[in-house]
Each structure stands twice: as C-alpha cells, then as structure tokens.
Design goal:
about 220 residues, 4-stranded mixed β-sheet, alpha+beta
Length: about 220
C-alpha cells in the first residue's frame, strides 16, 4: 500500500495561539503552581534515554529518532523549539507502540513491525511530512499539566502545525481519561497513557498510545 503524502496537505508554522480560554493563562498558572518553572527541555528528556530501538513499546525511541532526523535535515525547523527549555509548551508524545500501530495501519496489516522497521517506514514519508506530524503534537504557549488537562473537556488546542486538536475527557470524579480528537475520522483517537513527563518545567509532555493524524486518511 502506498503511504499517503501527508506533507503536502499539512501547513507547518513556527508559532501558534492556544484556543481555549481556560488554558490560555501563562505557564505558571496553567501548570497550577506559583513558583517559577524550570527550563529543562523535552529534547533533553528524550535524548537522555540511550537504549535505542528495543522492545519497550512504552518509551520514545522512534519519536526521538524522528526529532533528531528532522533537526539534522533542517536545523532551523520549528521542531527545534523542543530543545528550547525557556519556551513554554505542551507536547503529546506518541510512544513506540503508537508509531508501530500507525505504520501497521498505513500498510494495511495487523502485524506490528518492530521499532526499527517502524522508524524506517515513518522516515520514508519524507522529512517534511515527519516535521509536520511532529508539530501537530506540540501546543505552544502554555504548560498544561495533568490537573489542567482533566479540567479541559471540549477545549480546542491550536498546534504548532497550524491546526487544532480537541480534548475529550471522559469518566467520573474518581477515574477520568483524556482522549485527543484529531483530523482523522476513520481511526481510533489517541489516549493519554502517562501524564506529566518533565513535570516542574516550562515544557511538559503527556504520553499517548496512538499518533495524532493531521489529515483525514482513507
């Protein structure tokens, strides 16, 4: 099956506004803390794991490799914001299993390819497409921690790719989960499986179990 040329249909921009009145506050307010937030970047967190491609589907080897590939090919890419710990942002980071699921889906198979083969397939989409998909997972301008996210049902978040994702909070007072509604209406929506990666810093991330899709794929 031919991989659809996503990059031609997604606009990548360097900055974006946050569209949600409850989340449009400054980084400290959105994070729910009054003390200043740290400046450790998400790139520093991701690259700290030196294990490389392995069988741990819950870490971020494919994502890290994708970010590094984009920055090697395009050093001035907006993706470089992930290395600027002074810039507040919230990222929804797909784990390795999420990328494997994406590749299996695009290739029309139920068999997961493994991390190395999944990265090769993702890289085969083209560097501009990879860049656009990565930017679709980044929400600039606010540090949204777990507490803020769980209170944000229905909020529309403007991503660094220029388009939006919608927060869908379900459950009851003692158990709630956060899903993200992307532009693809044909596939299951990603769910947050781990909150507050890099907590206490201006750049925070939440792990998701599927890759956000910036276009509606057949």
């Amino acid at each position: 099956m031919r991989i659809p040329p996503l990059g031609k249909r997604v606009v990548a921009v360097a900055t974006a506004a946050l569209v949600a009145s409850g989340l449009a506050a400054g980084p400290a307010a959105a994070h729910g803390k009054s003390k200043p937030l740290g400046t450790r970047s998400l790139a520093a967190v991701l690259t700290a794991d030196k294990s490389g491609f392995d069988r741990n589907g819950r870490d971020f080897d494919i994502l890290t490799a994708a970010v590094l590939a984009v920055l090697k090919a395009k050093p001035s890419s907006p993706v470089s914001v992930l290395a600027d710990g002074k810039t507040a942002l919230t990222a929804f980071i797909p784990n390795d299993l999420a990328f494997e699921r994406l590749v299996a889906d695009l290739q029309g198979t139920r068999r997961l390819p493994g991390e190395r083969k999944a990265f090769t397939a993702v890289a085969g989409l083209g560097i501009n497409t990879v860049e656009s998909v990565l930017l679709y997972h980044v929400v600039p301008g606010a540090t949204i921690d777990k507490r803020a996210a769980l209170r944000s049902d229905g909020a529309k978040l403007k991503t660094a790719a220029g388009s939006s994702i919608t927060v869908d909070v379900t459950g009851c007072w003692w158990w709630r989960q956060v899903k993200l509604i992307d532009a693809d209406r044909n596939d299951r929506n990603p769910r947050v499986v781990a909150f507050n990666v890099n907590k206490g810093n201006r750049q925070i991330a939440h792990a998701i179990n599927r890759v956000l899709r910036p276009v509606d794929l057949p």
